[in-house]
Write a structure and sequence with these properties.
It contains 3 helices and 9 strands; from the N terminus they run E-H-H-E-E-E-H-E-E-E-E-E. The protein is of the alpha+beta class.
Amino acid sequence: MGNTWITRAETRADIPVIREITLAAFGREHEADIVDKLRADETAWIEGLSLVVAESAADGAAVLGHVLLTRGAIGDTPALCLGPVSVRPELQRGGVGSAVVRAALAAAAARGERYVVLVGHPEYYPRFGFTRASAYGIRLSVEAPDEAVMALALDEAHPLPGGMIRWPAAFGI
């Protein structure tokens, strides 16, 4: 099945499936509600940076996973906030999440975005180049394990700036 996966920007038809996958992946409504609120937030939403992994390019092909990049900042410097990442539970640990995260980071870099921040599993995200944000003077306004707050410079010519992460309002941070 892995040979037929494609990554693409979400479509309107994907929205209910993305919610279903997010509910199943997290086992609660919180993250699915965040995705819906981000989609409705004109200051956070960036068209084309909500990506899915689907079985194939065919219309109606099953969506397997989803990732979202939205507008935030590090201090006064524009940055993207990654998350949530959702994969159908039966497909977790099979490469779907990695495929959609890599596609999202490539899409962001192609748009000229420079920085991405997240709060997530410290064992998972370093494979994409994320490192501990505190090493760059990047801080979070709420309590979180230091190793879970991570950042990535998409362009080596532009090192990560320091400062407080400003998340979209939907995250409640």
